[in-house]
Amino acid sequence: MALVTTKQLLLDAQKGGYAVGAFNVENMEMVQAVVAAAEELKSPVIMQTTPSTVKYADLAYFYANVKTAAQKANVPVVMHLDHGNCFELAMQALRVGYTSIMIDGSHDSFEDNIAVTKAVVDACHPSDVPVEAELGKVGGKEDDLDGGEGGGYTVPSEALEFVNATGIDSLAVAIGTAHGVYKGVPKLDVNRLSEIREVVSIPLVLHGTSGVPDEAVRECIKRGICKVNYATDLRIAFTKGVQEVLQANPETIDPKKYNARGRDYVKQYVMEKIEVCKSVGKA
Ligand code: 13P
Fold first, then answer.
1. What pTM was computed for the model?
2. Domain extents in the chain
3. Ligand 1 centre distance from Cα of residue 206 (Å)
4. Is 82 in the active site?
5. CA distances for 77 relative to 89, 90, 133, 257, 281, angstroms
6. Residues lining ligand 1, judged by CB closer than 6 Å?
7. Cα dist. 105→6, 72, 89, 140 in Å?
């Protein structure tokens, strides 16, 4: 199948009361793992890369990997730019062929966030590429993206104004999650999520989901989350596999040997999270 956009995928999820998992990929094996999990469970899936990932190897490398995976798959696959940190990067991703773009102006003022987000929407919509943006601050650190302490939760009335002013297709909300590894169990403000849902009709996105208890994620989906982002736990799963092989056989020199174990562990993790998102059989 050709790559698809998040537009219809998330609207279908919203209507059906489930979410689509969005998984950050760092290499070919992680791409293979995510698509294999989605195929086995007949689920749509989103793969995404952050600015630091595309700095490591440029957009075209990741795009080529995910496009190849999509072409070989018989489930819908999206290539999404996660946390696009400036207009220029969003445009590069659009030109390379990404089928969904996030612009993250959440660390700017409300007005500047609107301005950069609207500029990206105006540039992407003529090509039918949907745009995700963030309002409020999801804290924590992901790669070299530092969200700081977070704590700036999304204000429902601002969310409505933001969506109307920008024309975005989906909104990432700050309700108490953070990127990276949690120190304790995160406490989510799910009532705030419901309040946002009441005033904003577009699909809502949950960031910082690694380490969030599955039950809490299910509750968020019930209250309007249609896209759930997982990154840190995929890195942990992949690394665990590699470490296991190298610790047991330190003389191993073939990357295929240890990468394959990493790939297996990522696939296992992604299958679990697709179940949590309730998107099994929705492809
Ligand atoms: P985690 O790294 O906490 O899973 O967050 C992922 C994310 O929100 C990517 O945008």
1. 0.96
2. 6-232+273-277
3. 9
4. yes
5. 21, 19, 20, 27, 14
6. 24, 82-83, 142, 179-180, 207-210, 229-233
7. 20, 35, 13, 16
Cα 248 to middle of ligand 1, angstroms? 30
Chain position carrying tokens 């109307």: 164
| pLDDT tens, residue by residue, 176-226 | 999 999 988 899 999 999 999 999 999 999 999 999 999 999 999 999 999
Residue owning tokens 């445009």: 91
CA 211 and chain centroid, separation: 15
Task: Please report where in the chains the tokens 């993206």 appear, as a residue.
Answer: 145
Residue 249 alpha carbon to ligand 1 centre in Å: 32
User: Hey, which CATH number is domain 6-232+273-277, 2.40.480.10, 3.20.20.70, 3.40.1180.10, 3.30.360.10?
Assistant: 3.20.20.70
